[in-house]
Amino acid sequence: MGKAWKFGDDIDTDVIIPARYLNNSDPKHLASHCMEDADPTFATNVKPGDIIIGGKNFGCGSSREHAPIAIKAAGVKVVIAESYARIFYRNSLNIGMPILECPEAVAGIESGDTVEVDLEKGLILNKSKGTSFQARPFPEFMQDLIRGGGLISYIKEKRNNA
Amino acid sequence: MGMTISEKILAAHAGLDKVVPGEIINAKLDIVLANDVTGPVAINEFNKLGIEKVFDQEKVALVADHFTPNKDIASAEHSKILRDFAKNQKIKYFWDTGTVGIEHCLLPEQGVVLPGDLIIGADSHTCTYGALGAFATGVGSTDCAAGMATGEAWFRVPETLKFIFHGTDFQPWVSGKDLILYIIGQIGVDGARYKAMEFSGDGIRSLSMDNRLTICNMAIEAGAKTGIIEPDEITLQYVKSRAKREYKIYKSDHDACYENVYEFRSKDIPLQVAFPHLPENTKSVDEASGRKIDQVVIGSCTNGRLEDLEIAANILKGKKIHPEIRCLIFPGTQQIYLEALRKGWIEAMVEAGAAVSTPTCGPCLGGHMGILAKGERALSTTNRNFVGRMGHPESEVYLCNPAVAAASAIKGEIVHPREVVNNG
Ligand code: SF4
């Protein structure tokens, strides 16, 4: 269970982690500047288990994996958005950062709401409002990836079995 | 039903006769790219795999171009990870300060990426190489690590959107940059999300390689997986002297299936300026004119090629940059720099009062060499104008082509180039 932090449409990777901090890829360093240009209070006030809500095209822009890494290292449990930019989506799955696509939940959750998410079922509960939402399931291939704990473990496993 | 050029390249690399949009395939890669920002993260993941060698030392390209020459200790340490890896792995295509260029100018120039290739790069603008008739797409560091280790990657075969430009009668000063900005203005920054953008028509075929590279470079700014142009005589001319290995030409079938087709008349496209803070906020240069600016940036993987510098130099020659403007010029590669120097263009720029840099990404991503203060405004030939992209979160970036940028540097405000050139 965690608090929702809501952002708008087209949240780009420069907002998630500005390039001026990319001279160091330590996840803790990245987390300390996460979302800085959209909400300078985010990085200091976000608590483990909190949730980011985004609009359409979340994570657009650069291919920097530092963006989902920063969000994950900040303690965010899951990102829920209307839709995702392609590379961000892929990167999140590859590093094991859970993300869900659910326009209804985005419309039904406000900043500060308390939200509980069952990642396996894709079930989203807004405890503050007593509402619930069902996110779209991942394609089968992605589920394998996630179950394997991200791309690197997936490949390792495949090689060991080969 | 036939296939598009993108579908053909993906099918060939997956060992299949046919693929259809939506299908998930595993395919063999011709080139895997990383830079000094994404490379160290990829190398870290690569090391976790417990594999000793990259899949092929001649198919990995590492380019130290973002924070180099290293701007501080942290970036020097970061770049060192890339340098050490390149050395230990005996990577053939590794470039560092002195030989380096901006990756998406450098790789086509050096003949490292070729028509028919399947390329992944840990950089979103990897889609640039589609201008050669390759299928090239940006990925993150983990995908890049897996690619370096296995020589393969998984792909979802994208739907293709076709953009046709009819006519070669472009308005004066209009370039590839204006065409792609115009498209993004029409379809939005997620208008081609997950899709391939195929550019065609006699308008596109009349363009030089430099202009085509600019167009494909910004496909990602519409959310696309790649931008691609069928190779023709102009492509072959460009590739012939550079290629050091075999390559293959693919073309879309006449009965290929497109999700959507957009048609434009070339002569209708005016010079474009994208307003903050998204590349889709486009207006014609006339609507933008009169806006005061503090800095002009000419360069980047979008517009740092020879033709771009030629246009800028011809406008700046014999004139002076406005005293309140800082005009920064970044040639895309050492070869471009040298060629511009020999032609006297660098001299013309320096005499006009521009600062000319060694090739680097520099201010394009707010890295170094020209960061904006609070409230400052830049007019730039780069590709992104997100919040804080070039410096302070309360600074602004406007995007345009090199002619508009150079003319505006003289005027001190955004202008149509005809105002400066006619007066000159
Ligand atoms: S010039 Fe800009 S957009 Fe191009 S690779 Fe460098 S930072 Fe990225």
Q: What layout of secondary structure does this protein have?
A:
The complex is a heterodimer of chains A (162) and B (424).
Chain A lengths: L1 E5 L6 H4 L10 H5 L10 H4 L5 E4 L11 H8 L4 E4 L4 H10 L3 E3 L1 H6 L5 E5 L4 E4 L4 E4 L5 H8 L3 H11 L1
Parallel strand pairs in A: 1-2, 2-3, 3-4
Antiparallel strand pairs in A: 1-5, 5-6, 6-7
Chain B lengths: L4 H10 L9 E5 L2 E5 L3 H10 L11 E4 L9 H16 L4 E3 L7 H7 L8 E4 L13 E4 L2 H10 L1 E5 L3 E7 L9 H12 L8 E5 L1 H4 L3 H9 L8 E3 L4 H8 L19 E6 L6 E3 L7 E3 H4 L6 E5 H4 L2 H11 L9 E5 L3 H9 L2 H8 L2 E2 L20 E4 L15 E4 L2 H10 L5 H7 L1
Helix pairs in contact in B: 2-5, 6-8, 12-14, 12-15, 15-16
Bound molecules: iron/sulfur cluster.
Write the CATH fold name of the largest domain in chain B.
Answer: Aconitase, domain 3
Largest sheet properties of chain B:
5 strands, parallel
- Strand order, biggest sheet of chain A? 4-3-2-1-5-6-7
Bound molecules: iron/sulfur cluster
Number of helices of chain B: 16
What is the CA-based Rg of chain A, rounded? 15 Å
Portion in beta strands of chain A: 15-25%
Gap from first CA to last CA of chain A: 40 Å
Give the largest chain-chain interface (CB within 8 Å): A-B, 41 and 52 residues
Structure summarized in a few sentences:
The complex is a heterodimer of chains A (162) and B (424). Chain A has 162 residues and is of the alpha/beta class.
Description of the molecule:
The complex is a heterodimer of chains A (162) and B (424). Helix content of chain A is 35%, strand content 18%. Chain A has a seven-stranded mixed β-sheet. By secondary structure, chain B is α/β, with parallel strands linked by helices. Chain B has two domains: 260 residues, Aconitase, domain 3 (2-Layer Sandwich), CATH 3.30.499.10; 147 residues, Aconitase, domain 3. Chain B is 33% helix and 18% strand. Classes of the chains: A alpha/beta (162), B alpha/beta (424). At the A-B interface, helix 4, helix 5 and helix 8 of A face helix 2, helix 3 and helix 5 of B. The site of iron/sulfur cluster has 13 residues of chain B, from helix 4 and helix 11.
